[in-house]
Amino acid sequence: MDEDDGEQLALISAAKAAARTSAARTRVKDNSAKPFEPAPELPVARVLVDVPLAHLDRPFDYLVSAKQHEQVVAGSRVKVHFAGQDVDGFVVDRLAESDHEGRLAPLRRSVSPEPVLTPEVAELTGSVARRYAGTRSDVLRLAVPPRHATVESRPSPSADEPELDPDSAAAWWQDYDGGALCRRLTEGGSPRAVWTALPATHWEDGLAEAAAATLASGRGSILCVPDGRDLERLDSALTRTLGAGQHVLLSAEPGRAERYRSFLAVSRGAVRVVAGTRAAAFAPVRDLGLVAIWDDGDDLYAEPRAPYPHCREVLLLRSHQTGCAALLGAFARSIEAASLVSSGWAEDLSAARGVVRDRAPRVSVTGATDTELERDPFAQTARLPHEAHTTIRAALEIGPVLVQAPRSGYAESLMCDRCRTPARCTTCTGPLRLPNPRQPPVCRWCGTEAAGYACRECGGHGLRAPVVGARRTVEELGRAFAGVPLRSSTGERVLTDVGREPAIVVATPGAEPSADGGYAAVVLLDTWLVLARPGLRAAEEAVRRWFNAAALARAQSAGGRVVAVGDPAEPALQALVRWDPAGFASREVEERRTAHLPPASRLVVLTADEAVLQEAVGQLALPAGAEVLGPTPVPVASDQASPGARLIIRVPRRAGSALSDTLLDMQGVRSAKKLSPVRVQIDPYELA
DNA sequence: ATGACCAATTGA
DNA sequence: CAATTGGTCATG
Q1: How far apart are CA A572 and CA A568, in angstroms?
Q2: Of A75, A80, A223, A343, which has the fewest beta carbons less than 10 angstroms from its beta carbon?
């Protein structure tokens, strides 16, 4: 019975296919004056079409005409007729014949013969799409910059043969493993390492030397940095180390033409070293030997466009896929990097304890314990405990002082004025803010008024908006240290470097200028506040920022001091005192493991209306061990009234690809059935 | 998405 | 009985 039904179905669909094919044939005959002349060889082009629909996310075959034969190559751009409209596409292959049963349509036209999508990057976009349960066309938009015809018509000047000093790389890296990493790169090896940079070092020179060592083996490199300022530093380091014209920069900064010019220099093989921000992770470097990323914990590495891939993960996928070397460097250590070390995938490239002690500044913590606050009421009002004050004064005798003050954005959240416990909404545990000083505090998430607030720790009724922000910090310090030059470096106006002469430099995290010869002292204000931020990454992020600032100080032997204003019992600050970023990160890895959080687990956040979420979960074939949390209403600021809920699913790490697969299936079915969209975010930065 | 196709429903 | 509408399917 089953067989009969099957046979009938087969007959019906065969008849339908025949009808379609003959219809297509007559249409072609009727509409075209000349008969189609196919390319003399490999007349089939396999094309990735730019359609946003999950169920159409696979290659389609088209016929190449004799005229298009030369232009249509693997990696070139074409236009094709698809579902009743003209769409863009990338050719991924030329074939002798198609495995498609029906008749093939001819390519609409060849856009350009430039092979912008190399086979390696084509494969990479596939793995990234799969890993993040997104569509390949979304990833392709991130990987290949928009075309610029004028730029494309010009040749890319080739880099000269580089003149490299074979010993300089190993010499620069001497303090770590005796320079073995760079020797292995020079010899064509592919080490994978998590590098903890020594304080007061020019990390950009380290990256440039690693690229030089890789170049000496005849291979190229990709070096990623968080932002434009770091890119400038790396740019000059690369020019110093490799000579002019050996590298290009890839970032969103310059205009489209410049960006495409750099991209073409790389895809044409004219230049083999790429430095850039997160988009550079997809650069089509020939003979890739090394991918490197500086300060991979920076949130700028999280791509804000779907499917939200993280730059570090893209580089790791790439290293995995091509077998190239991987280097993750930072002054601190991200949880993910620590996890790569503990799993044995990467080696730990840290200097010996003794060397670290020699290079690090002396770090102390002051001012946040209750007793000290009682002894020193000045600490509360001016946020500058006595010890910080005297340290600054002494340091100004020998050089500049850096004061790191949290951005005033954090000032929004209130805390108890007695014990500094963050003030939270009793309804939804969201942070409280003060709309204006005459009104009661209001929850930032649900908008509930918290009249008659009482601290849940100490019962106190007083609240304060603790952060003062950089501007008021500048004013306070100006009064306290009259006559000393004051400079500020914040979001709007960022300084890159300051000189050796005594000055106080107030900076927000991430905007710290480096000082010629290093700072005599670095002061970290309001550390408890940064730790009290909502979100799972608060401690990791705080530690990263403190190490980045503290690493700009001179060595202890040269008088370098760091004073953190906070609670000396706080483990995050103890890690700073011991200058032990790796120890801190590996403890965090353990905590994440027991809490079933990434990177030990893989996690997905689904966002949609609540009923839609229920339906979507029903469509999933969840792997064993999956936990479904929620749905819960999306925490939104009270001013934006967007309905919606989110749901979190987490699975053991080894089930990560099974999770991605079932999410892809779900998105495919949903887009085919025209069901309302569900946002899928795998291991998003904030929750992960 | 968009279009093609089929079937059922509606109106004269 | 024609015209209209709604659902399903395929997209090379």
Answers
A1: 9
A2: A343
